[in-house]
Amino acid sequence: MTQIDLAWGAGPSERYEALAQEFRPVFARIRATAVERDLARGLPHEEIGWLRDAGFTTLRLAPEQGGFGASLPELFNLLIELSEADSNVTNALRSHFGFTEDVLNSSALEWRAVWLGRIANRETIGSGFSEVGEARIGAFSTRLTRHGDHWLLNGSKYYTTGSLFADWINLGGTDENGQPVGALVPRQAPGVDVIDDWDGFGQALTASGTVRFSDVVIDPELVNPPGGRFAYSSAFFQLVHLATLAGIGRAAANDVARLVRERTRIYSHGNAPRVSEDPQILQVVGRVRGAAYSSGSIVLRAAEATQRAYEARLDSNPERLAAANAIAELEINQSVNVVTNLILDATTLLFDALGASAAKRGLGLDRYWRNARTISSHNPRIYRDRVVGDFAVNGTPPPAQYRIGTSETTAEKVPA
Q: Which residues form the Acyl-CoA dehydrogenase C-terminal domain (predicted)?
């Protein structure tokens, strides 16, 4: 059945249904064992392999480059569908799709060609940017230093989402002169130790733990070209989270509808001889579904802004380019708290349509709220409305990037 048939609304393009049909059988297989994996803490190595084999990781590459030529709205709609199956898998691939945007936007033609080829060859990329500890905002404690005809990498990263499943780790560090530098590191290289120590109560299967690097030899061609990440990266990465939330909402809506349909026990003070006919229960189901529908619609509208930002990369006018990137960031910021509140409320409200048996761990209904709450804790949403308000009142553009670390004042108080 199409999204329209299911009342989730039309996809973002005329060809979307044909594109989605390529992957829906894989999504269904992933969905079938999602609760079992959550209960057993089974990491989705196999499931990510299914997606890779189906070419899902090549979505953004043009057909002549070995991909599907998906637009950003098409990609984000597919991420909603994948998140409906298992939000952990979406999060594990977030860095891969972000790096793909880096490659598509790069002006370093030789480097771009190499990595387009590797992505087309179904190689995947994980994350190695975030650090914990005393590193200052905008700096990395991870070091890349020149050593003869190669580089040596030393340091530690955390929140390395997806790296345990990936072929490469994309990371940021500091060189011997204190300047930022990035590189791609083979996950299986000597001196790379990927540790599954992420202990969050949600998104537990994303392998978002520690990676340690000890004298890892990096060939010069694996050092990223200068220029930083793609201009709309902040908007893109946050929109992946919103698409994931929208998918969680869809899954929660489908589950509560199914469980109400199947339920035979009623309360004496209810309104009908069957729960499936009780108007108050049906109202709860409708509210959960409405939250999922609205969230998906918001995500697809915001995805149009990221597509405009991507297309603006070819604009020779720097002011128009900057405006397109700023508007994309603002549209996502305007969406964050709305989508987050809708899904956090929906994943709590669904229990009101069911009895106490809905709390049984075997149903896995608690994972929806746990996963949504964990995703919503990234890149704190409390700052988003202020950024939007500052633009609306004062015309202040949003920050291009977000960083975390210690301030200079805090760092001065930390003993050596």
A: 240-378
